[in-house]
Write a structure and sequence with these properties.
This protein is α/β, with parallel strands linked by helices. The radius of gyration is 16 Å and the shape is globular. The chain contains 6 helices and 14 strands. Helix content is 22%, strand content 30%. The longest helix has 12 residues, at 167-178.
Length: 208
C-alpha cells in the first residue's frame, strides 16, 4: 500500500527524521533538532504521535528527542537506554555543539531481532552494530519501507570510526538482515536520499 511518509531534514549535520502515518496515530523515526516543531505542524488536528523509534543515539539523531517526548508524550524505543556515551557528548562538545537534552528510552529493545506492533503497524526490528553499538533498522513489511539511520546509504554505509565501530560487523549485519529483503524495498537513510535494496545489491561497493 502507499502510506504517507514525510521526511524532515535538520539539526547540526543535516539528519533525516521521518513521520509515518499509522493505523493508530503517527510514528516518528529519529529526532534531529527542530523535529518537534516540524511534527506539530504536520499532524492533522486531533492526531497524535505515539511512538519514536531511534535507529541509534548519536547526537544528530536525538537532538530533538527530549522536546518531542515532552510535547507529545510519545514512547521512545531504542536498542539501549539513553546515555551520554551513546550520544557522543564528548565528541559533540569538542566540535562546539551544545549538549543533548536528556530523554527517557521507555522501551529498551535489546540486540536480538524481533517483531513489534506499534501504532497498529507490524514492524520488524533488526539490531545492527558497526556504525553505532546501539544501531537498529526498522522494517514495515506491509509497505516495503525500511528505516536504517546511518547503517546504509545510497552507494555507501555508515562510518565506523566512532567508539565501538566495526566495518566487519556493519557489513555482516547489512548482508544478513537487509539484503535478503525484497529488492523494491525503499531504504530511508539518516542522511541523503532514499534508495532501494535492489539498487544497493547491485551497486553498493561495500555490499556487492
Amino acid at each position: 500500500m502507499s502510506r504517507k511518509i514525510q521526511v524532515y531534514t535538520g539539526g547540526s549535520v543535516g539528519c533525516n527524521g521521518y513521520l509515518i502515518e499509522a493505523a493508530d496515530g503517527y510514528v516518528a523515526v529519529d529526532a534531529p533538532l527542530g523535529m518537534a516543531a516540524w511534527v506539530a505542524r504536520q499532524l492533522p488536528q486531533g492526531a497524535k504521535l505515539t511512538h519514536l523509534l531511534l535507529t541509534h543515539q548519536h547526537f544528530d539523531h536525538v537532538e530533538g528527542a527530549a522536546e518531542l517526548q515532552r510535547q507529545t508524550g510519545c514512547t521512545i524505543h531504542a536498542v539501549a537506554p539513553y546515555s551520554r556515551t551513546l550520544t557522543l557528548e564528548e565528541a559533540a562538545g569538542a566540535w562546539g555543539l551544545p549538549p543533548v537534552a536528556p530523554y527517557t528510552v521507555d522501551d529498551v529493545l535489546g540486540t536480538a531481532p524481533r517483531k513489534a506492533g506499534w501504532a497498529g503497524l507490524e514492524w520488524q526490528v533488526f539490531p545492527i552494530s558497526g556504525h553505532a553499538t546501539d544501531g537498529a533498522a526498522y522494517y514495515l513489511p506491509g509497505d516495503d519501507e525500511l528505516f536504517v539511520g546511518d547503517i546504509l546509504f545510497a552507494g555507501s554505509v555508515g562510518r565506523t570510526d566512532f567508539p565501538g565501530g566495526s566495518m566487519s560487523a556493519l557489513v555482516r549485519g547489512i548482508r544478513e538482515h537487509l539484503m535478503p529483503l525484497p529488492p523494491h524495498t525503499t531504504v530511508n537513510s539518516g542522511h541523503g536520499p532514499a534508495t532501494t535494496i535492489g539498487e544497493e545489491q547491485l551497486n553498493n561497493p561495500y555490499i556487492c
